[in-house]
Amino acid sequence: MRLKAKEIAKELGVSPATVSLALNDRPGINQETKQRILTYIQEREEEIRQEKEQEHQGSKGSILMLNYVKNGIIMNQKIRQSNNQPTFNGEIEKQVKKAGYQFCFRSFQESVQEVDEILDECRKLDVKGIYIMAAEMNRGDIYPFLQLQVPIVTGDNLFYKEEIDSFLIDNREGIARAVDYLIDKGHSHIVYLAENVDIFNFVERRTAFVLEMARRECGDASHRIRHLGSNVDEVYESMLRYLDEGLKGTTAFVLESSVISLGVSKALLERQVRIPKDISLIGFDALPPISPPGVNLTLIKGTHTKRHIAAIKHLMRHIEDENEEIVKVYYKTRLLEGNSVFDKTKYIYSK
Predict the structure, then answer these.
(1) CA 203/CA 328 separation, integer angstroms
(2) Which residues contact 31 (CB under 8 A, 6 or more apart)?
(3) Residue 324 carries which DSSP code?
(4) What residues contact residue 144 under an 8 Å CB cut-off, 6+ apart?
């Protein structure tokens, strides 16, 4: 199959004329751009050759990536495309096809589907292994999938006793990073604002908050966790009521999720609470779509795309070698510093 100049140009962000110059070895194009075009063509043609070879040999079966939605509050927020597939699927599909498997993505809605439906589909698709985005799963939810007797890897949940591989954000490390950052900026009366949903990641973060506050000698923080709601509107209304009570010496909030970040920001903006002058904010894992004007939220960020790709690669190794060791892999977070935390050690604001 010959690649078309227009397709190459679109993929690389250059003009078809530039592609033509590179292909015909003509002047008028710099060497770096020319080499980039030729390298892309060579790599793409090799991918096409491998795909055709695999089609000729026949597939080794299917790899299923399953988005498990229990209540829809968490996982549906992560799936935004019209075809209900995550944006990082392209790279994952490429890795799966390269290994000779077919790639399938499904979203299982527990409230409207029977688990037997997805199990039957797995059998029809000749699924050899499953990667489950399992943030909303309870412990008992995993057992029906064990009936398939294929390797399973989970993301954002832990089923270690069931001998299932897990790839997770290191929530303890992330919360420690957030607490240390705030305390080093002079904050000690910190409150953790939480959703009403007790999923694995959230429970780990809340537990870590209490432990890390104790480690930094900031007292018993078990009563400094305030649950606001499970959607933006609930969080917004609850935060307004919280502000009516008064902050009572609180100088900083740790925001559990993007839902919390958005609802809290909306309430603070409405009440004209100054960020970070009146209150400092540090979020976890995802930026809210909207923030108060002039506020760049300081954020503890976990990796998603790389973690999911690593989980799929491990799943395929496990399929090829049933003696592959069961792993529990934690990915460290990173701090994205914005302007939402006031450094009390350097400045004093007058009211």
Answers:
(1) 18
(2) none
(3) P
(4) 115, 116, 119
Residues facing 169 on adjacent strands: 331
Q: Let me know if 255 is exposed, middle or buried by CB neighbors in 10 A (0-12, 13-18, 19+).
A: buried
Rounded-to-integer distance, Cα 315 and Cα 167, Å:
11
Contact 292, 275 (CB under 8 A): yes
Nearest Cα neighbor of 283 from 169, 193, 210 is: 193
Quick one: which H or E segment has residue 103?
A: strand 102-109
Measuring CA to CA, how many Å separate 111 from each of 114, 130, 135?
A: 8, 21, 16
Per-residue burial over 299-334, b = 16 or more CB atoms within 10 Å of its CB, e = otherwise: bbbbebeebbbbbbbbbbebbeeeeeeeeeeebebe
CA-nearest of 335, 8, 301 to 182 is 335
H/E element holding 297?
none
Q: Give the tokens for residue 129.
A: 């292994």
Q: Quick one: residue 26, left, alpha or beta (phi over 0 = left, psi -120 to 50 = alpha)?
A: beta
Residue 187 has, within 13 A of its CA and on its CB side, a CA count of 27
pTM of the entire structure?
Answer: 0.76
* Sequential DSSP letters for 184-244: HTT---EEEEEES---HHHHHHHHHHHHHHHHTT----TTSEEEEESSHHHHHHHHHHHHH
Each residue's pLDDT tens digit in the chain (351 positions)? 467 888 888 888 889 899 888 888 888 888 889 898 888 888 888 777 766 665 555 568 999 999 999 866 554 444 443 345 565 678 898 889 888 899 999 999 998 899 999 999 999 999 999 999 999 999 899 999 999 999 999 999 999 888 899 999 999 999 999 999 999 999 999 999 999 999 999 999 999 999 999 999 999 999 999 999 989 999 999 999 999 999 989 999 999 998 999 999 999 999 999 999 999 999 997 665 556 667 889 999 987 778 899 999 999 999 998 887 889 999 999 999 999 999 998 865 544
Q: Token digits for 74? A: 């968490």
CA distance 137 to 10: 40
